[in-house]
Amino acid sequence: MTPNSATTSSEPSRRSFLASTAVAAAVVAGGVPLLSACGGSQEGRKEGTTSGKDAQKILPTFVASSVVAPDIPAKNGAPAGFSKAIATADLKTSVPKKLGSGGKLKIMSPFWGTPPKADNPYYSAMNEAAGVEVTWQNQDGVTYDQKLGAVLASSDIPDVVVVPGWNLMGKIPSAINAKFADLGPYLSGDKVKDYPNLAAVPSEAWQRGIFGGQLRAIPFPAPYVTDIAPMYRRDIFKKKGYSVPTSPDEFLSWAKEATDAKSKVWACDDMKWTAFNIYGVFPGSDKALWWNLVDGKLVNRIETEEFLEALEWTRKLYAADVVHPDAVSGKAGGDARNRFTAGQSLVFNGNISAWWGSVSEQATQNSDFDMAAFDIFGPDGGDPTLWAVQPANIFTFISKKATKQQIKDFLALCNYCAAPYGTKEFMLTAYGVEGTDYDMKKGLPVKSTTGVNEVNGAYDYTGNPAPYVAYPDFPEVTKGIVEWQQRMGAFTKKTSFFGLTVTEPNRWANLADNFEQLEDDVVRGRKKISDVQQAVSDWKSKGGDGLRDWYKKLLDETGSAN
Asked: Where are the alpha helices (DSSP H) in 184-247?
């Protein structure tokens, strides 16, 4: 599976790590672990999905933005790249006319850290620019699922509510269908052209915004090509004369050569996520993606030989003592990057945004520091078979009780916040007020302490442009990230339920919850491959085969989105 959404000093926010600043810390936003996704094929239905065919009647018309041309155009499901800073005088305008009416909206959103004061200059400037007076009801992101469940169970909910994909559990999916408005009358087909920045959001992201058979959510678009990359210390590789491995066998052989425990240097950190990509395992970011039609039979990732082979290869790394001891003991999360930048491990896998985070951090500490991501190879050293992740995993809804004007104001706000890089609207949304929240230094916007504390989340969730990477302070990192994802995108396929928001029946929703721990036990030598095989057998008898039949019926009735 992919890693949890994690943070350094900020919340999961695309602008936080894709809009560069020399001050703000990078955010590592990963996939969604072992969750039942949400949706339904009709109003009030608690399980199911909306098919690709039916969705065509609902989805907004896609109209790519031409306001600012990227330095690297998007392709293969990967983001576009902007490697240059754009001078203030050269910023474009994507919202020539204020669309908001001056109405008021209360928005509940997760927030990591201390929420800013309600009357801060950033919020005031955004309210004025978008024409919508927003009152933010920021809630602790760590316990947001509890607050969300309680609010949605009540009769009084805020006008607008943000729902992260990792919180789509329990009764929340059915509450979404019951309590949030259908945006189709305002956005479906050519109606979205009233909101050009929203029209430029890719169709597969909008597909994920269909809940209960209706277009209810403004999605947070993301690339569908994997963002879990094997990153390596290119400086140390050059110094030692190492060649980048191009097969699993080469990697293991190199790892044994590179490890020097006496000098506190190990070849790698935990490599399980990359192993799943090397061996072509169906993605773990959404349980619907665990299923794929293979030779007419619906197969779950845990039933495949590729799944076992990935675990076995990762186990060999641990058994050879080439994995950093802290990863062996289970300290695999946020510390992996620190071990990497310290030179204690030479390869680690994580969200590719860590590339910029590490380079920007080390720029003032270690001038020789250099890193890159190596291409994922297949089991035999040939081309890999990669699988697409979901193209959106954070959703924003407006209450069914909202007036028509409130819905229009909501969409006006979303359209403003979805402005592309290189526009005046983007600069305000991403950086705040010049002179207060940021200053221009050497042609780059640099946030002040005020900006770091106040221009932090919130408006990200009410609109984002098509996926992009923009690190003008380190253009080579922008180029490296985008080109890596585009190369990997060329080998990326879509499973049967890609792009669909599926609600599993509650009786089976927790059926596979123990597999992640089992995977970690196996690769560390605490359990055997035979234990996985037995767990799969138990999974089948306890409901896995029934769940397969349910998914197959769903696929037969509604079709794939591909």
From this structure: 184-187, 196-199, 203-207, 234-240
Mean pLDDT of successive 10-residue stretches along the chain, which has 562 residues: 30 36 28 27 48 82 96 96 93 97 97 92 97 96 94 94 90 89 98 98 95 93 96 98 98 98 97 98 92 96 98 98 92 80 97 95 96 98 97 96 98 98 97 96 93 91 96 96 98 94 84 93 97 98 97 88 72
| CA-to-CA dists, residue 205 to 63, 192, 218, 222, 419, angstroms | 14, 14, 9, 7, 16
**Residue range 102-128, pLDDT digits in tens:** 999 999 999 998 999 999 999 999 999
Distance CA 242, CA 279 (A): 24
Q: Which residues pair with 111 in a beta bridge?
A: 140
CA neighbours within 13 Å on the CB side: how many for 265? 13
Q: What is the DSSP pairing of strand 214-215 with strand 210-211? A: antiparallel
Report the SS3 class of residue 188.
Answer: coil
| Spacing of C-alpha 335 from chain mean position | 20
Q: How far apart are CA 273 and CA 262, in angstroms?
A: 27
Distance CA 478, CA 482 (A): 6
Dist CA 119 CA 398 (whole Å): 23
Amino acid (1-letter code) at residue 113 = G
Residue with tokens 């949400």: 38
Count of all residues that appear for the chain in the document: 562
Distance CA 490, CA 498 (A): 17
CA dihedral over 494, 513, 321, 303, signed as positive or negative: negative
State the sign of the Cα–Cα–Cα–Cα dihedral 335, 340, 343, 346: positive
Share of the chain above pLDDT 70, in %: 90
Report the alpha-carbon distance of residue 555 to residue 497 in Å, rounded.
8
The mean pLDDT of the chain is: 89
The residue type at 544: G
Residues 6+ apart with CB under 8 A from 373: 229, 230, 231, 232, 352, 355, 480, 481, 484
Distance, CA of 481 to CA of 294 (rounded, Å): 32
CA angle 135, 141, 143 (to 5 degrees): 115
Q: Label each residue of 61-85 as H, E or C.
A: CCCCCCCCCCCECCCCCCCEEECCC
pLDDT at 69: 96
What is the radius of gyration, based on Cα positions, of the chain? Answer: 23
Q: What is the pLDDT of residues 160-201, one digit of tens each?
A: 999 999 888 878 888 998 999 999 999 999 999 999 999 999
